[in-house]
Amino acid sequence: MASYLVVGASRGIGLAFVKQLSANPQNKVFAGVRNVESSIHLQPLLSRPNVHAVKLDMTNLVSLEAAAEEVARINNGKLDILILNAGLTGSGKLFNDSTYDEIIEEHSMLTNNVLGPVLTIKAFLPLISQGSQKKIIAVSSANADTEFILTIESGMGATYTATNAALNAYITKFSVQYRQEGIIFRSICPGLVDTGATQDPPILDQSRYEPMMKKLKPLFPDFKGPLTPEQSVDMVLEVIDKTTMADSGTFVSHNGNKEWL
Ligand SMILES: NC(=O)c1ccc[n+]([C@@H]2O[C@H](COP(=O)([O-])OP(=O)(O)OC[C@H]3O[C@@H](n4cnc5c(N)ncnc54)[C@H](OP(=O)(O)O)[C@@H]3O)[C@@H](O)[C@H]2O)c1
Question: Ligand 1: which of 45, 110, 193 to mutate, judged by most atoms within 8 Å of the beta carbon?
Fold first, then answer.
């Protein structure tokens, strides 16, 4: 039994975290979303007595402080596990095809994907330090693993990749800083996950993965294609569960190692 805050719970992987975690009535799950009313996929889960929607924008200090106060009030000043799942993926455009303006525009993702989680950690550290598990998990991406980039020869999404690499660096630095206080930090990649069903509008056409599969299959013969959010989250939750202080500061996949697919 534990208390969790899932940041970015309106759709995709974050929504699946809330769904799977709250299936255990012993857990208390805070679903952090920018807009509770418009989070239509989350709404049905709010009837579960152990799910609490919390309005939270990672880049807004007023919102973060109000969210931390609300969680503290409902959960006696503590939180066991913080899951920093929220993030933007950007256009994925190649550098060569981007104008100066587009590069600058994409760069704003650093504010959302790097500064956002860092501010969120700052807001919730007092609650985590009172929790029984004291775990802070950043949902990162295999894109931040340089060997993986070179293996799959992917030059796309450089800014998104940079945000994941920077977030991982923060997680490792914080792990060192907070080791004595017993707070565990870890970055985990959820694998390749098809979140199309909860996009607006939904994207259900699986054929969009065909070119990617063609490229990845020869490199990773065992790779069977994207995971569902539920499959990914089950695996990530197992990794979180097994994570101890000995793992603090590391970056692993949903397999609990450096197998990214
Ligand atoms: N899907 C994959 O294959 C994959 C692979 C590797 C890593 N990841 C990582 O996994 C995480 C979740 O991915 P996903 O595919 O589920 O993404 P998604 O479907 O696009 O959902 C992103 C979530 O982040 C929220 N969000 C964005 N900025 C926010 C902010 N400033 N404050 C609060 N919430 C914010 C969004 O909320 P709104 O509804 O308000 O926009 C939404 O709930 C991301 O960090 C992504 O980089 C995904």
Answer: 193
Q: Does domain 3-252 have CATH number 3.40.50.720?
A: yes
CB of residue 34 inside a 6 A radius of ligand 1: yes
Q: Would you say the CB of residue 193 lies under 6 angstroms from ligand 1?
A: yes
pLDDT digits (tens, 9 = 90+) for 141-193: 999 999 999 999 999 999 999 999 999 999 999 999 999 999 999 999 999 99
User: Is the shortest distance between the CB of 87 and ligand 1 below 6 Å?
Assistant: yes
The chain-wide mean pLDDT, for the chain, equals 97
Q: Per residue, what are the HEC states of the chain?
A: CCEEEEECCCCHHHHHHHHHHHCCCCCEEEEEECCCCCCCCCHHHHHCCCEEEEECCCCCHHHHHHHHHHHHHHCCCCCCEEEECCCCCCCCCCHHHCCHHHHHHHHCHHHHHHHHHHHHHHHHHHHHCCCCCCEEEEECCHHHCHHHHHHHCCCCCHHHHHHHHHHHHHHHHHHHHCCCCCCEEEEECCCCECCHHHCCCCCCCHHHHHHHHHHHHHHCCCCCCCECHHHHHHHHHHHHHHCCHHHCCCEECCCCCCCCC
